[in-house]
Each structure stands twice: as C-alpha cells, then as structure tokens.
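Running this now, will post back.
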Amino acid sequence: MSDNMKRRDFLKGATTGVGLGMLGAMGIYSYSPLRKQHFPEVARKMTDIGVCKSVNVTNISETSWFENATLMGDIKGAGGLLVNQYDYNWPPFGNGKGLGKGSYDDGMAKIKHLLPDKIDEAWQVCVENCVHPENAGGYAALIDVEEMSGKHRKFLLDSGWGYAWTDECFKREGIDKMLANREIEALFFSHEHFDHFWGLPVTLKYDPTITIYIPEGFYPEGLQYIKDSGHKGKVVTVPKGLNPHIPGMATYVFGIPIICRVYGEQSMYFNVKDKGLVSVTGCCHQGIIRFAETAYNEIKYENDNFYGIYGGLHISPFDDWDPKYDDLVISLKNYGFEQIGCNHCTGVLCAKKFVAAGYNVIEGTAQHRSKDKVYLGNGDKISFG
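Update: finished.
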C-alpha cells in the first residue's frame, strides 16, 4: 500500500462525519483510523486525462475586496448572505437607490451602451450610482499549461470585479496585450460570484471573441450579463462532473449552493508528468477535503501523488477563526501536497496556520495591495513541474 493510500485511509477516519458520541466530541476518535470502518470503499474511476509538462500560475489579483468590514457591513445591512447578489447595489449594477435596493436591469441600463470598449466611462457611472465602489477588487489568475511537446496553452481563470482595479491588474501583468494578441484561448469562470465574474467587460475590452466556459447553474442575470458586456464569442456551459479539456487538464463542476444566491463551482485539475496532480481553484466552496477526495476518486494521475494546489481554499475568508477550521488544517497534511500556493479566501490567518503546521506554503511578496507575504499576493507566480 502506497503512502498516499495510507494517508487517504487515515483521512477518511479523521475528517468525515459528526456526532458519534462523547469520544468523538473529545477529538480522540475523530482523529483515529478506526473511524474508516464507518465508510464504504468507493471504487476509483481512474479516468485518464492525459499528462502535461508543467503548469504555471500568475496571480493577477487575489484581492476580492479591500476591507472586510465594509463588505460585511453591506451584506448585513442589505439583509444577509442569502440576498441575491444583484440586489446589493454593488458595482456595476448600481441604480442610485441605496444599499439592498439594487437591480440588474436598472444598473445595466446605465452602462450597457459603454461596454466593453469604454469601461473607464462605465466605471465612472458605477462610482456615482453604486454602494462602496472603492471596495471592489476581484480575483483572476493566468494559467499557462505546457504540453509535452513544449507548446504553451494560456487560459484565464475568472475576470475580477471592479472595472478600474481589474484593468489596472491586467495591464500590470500584460494580460491586456495577451488578450489583444489572442494568446489566451479561453476564459474559465469558477462561479458567478461578484468578485470573480463581474469584471468580465475588462476581458472583453481586449478580446470580445474569447471562448467562455461557465459552470452549470448560472442564473438568468449572469447569462444576460455575458451578452450585455459585449461578448461575441462562444459560451460553453460545463456540466456537473469531470470534463477533460486538453491533455493533462480537466475541470470539475461541483453542484453546490453558495452564498448570495450563487450555484455551482468549476475547479481545475492538472496531471503533471512525473510529478502528480495539481489542483487549482477560484474559491473552493466545495471544501478542500471534497476537492481532494474527488480527484482521488475520479482521476488517474502520476505516481498517485498530490503534487500541488493553488488558489482560494475558503477556510477563513474574513480572517476569523472557528476551532473547526483546525480540523481542516490538520487533515490537509494527510494528502501530502508538496507545494501549497494559497491566497484569496484562504485568509491570511489560515495561511499562517498552514505554515505553523509545517506545510510548504509558497511565500509571496505582499505587493500591489496584498496584505501579507505569507501567501501568494497580487503579481506573484508559482510553477508546478
């Protein structure tokens, strides 16, 4: 039995299930391999997605918003986490009526004629009509996949939020020129959340024909926004489950409900030759354990090894801490990731917990308004393979 198999069996006993009596409450049984007897063995599908030579990630922006207190104040004031995100009156869908009184149709009517070419003018309209436009950052990453032949394939994962911030980040990392030169062949959206999706017109300003992949579950407003933003290319709705794209690269759509009336998340898996599996996420709302377990159950990868992970791991996005998060920190060790490139909704506090636990967390530079070098900040890069 390989070390990964042993780790995985232990993990099943350590992290799944609740409420098994006083012993479990004390934490002894919860972290014992004895618990694996409660779970049936699942036959691994071992789907072959091919191999690639390397995966290189550029963090265009991991700063979804600049002040946690401002965002949480808006959410609470508008009615809470279950409110439709298009109703908060955040940019770009502001109608000037105040917090919680937003409307997709009203907001879009003010800027549609300016998209995608005149995003500067559109953003000025947003500043005048939206709630806290200065807090709108965004998440976006450039994925560069090197095929075994040496050919490089470039993809965007998400497109930020605030037009001004996203455009600044695109220009800083040369994404504007790559898009204009058609070097980036597709834009993958992880999910419909404001900080990953609403900056779409910035991408379309430079390449309105880019192919877009969205996870199954987008709402009518999101589908309409793609059209209203000036997209002239192909839109592919990716179904739930595993979906291979190019040799060594596949996405997986998790059918999960998410806060602010969003549904479904699309994450990425890469099989790097002689190294193992690399997992890339936007937010990982499906949970880091489910993300890793899905790969184990679904995919065949080199050396049966979890090689690396990049992105938001959604453990302490507001840098709060609940004791149950410690379970996740402890459990992650059992997968044996050789490199962890975390940021965004992982939270600075969680990244520090990872470092304290002895994980190989790749340090960043804390530049371009990222808060701490404990994780990969804006403009930082990570290579796998």
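Residues 1-36 have pLDDT under 50 and may be disordered. More later if anyone needs it.
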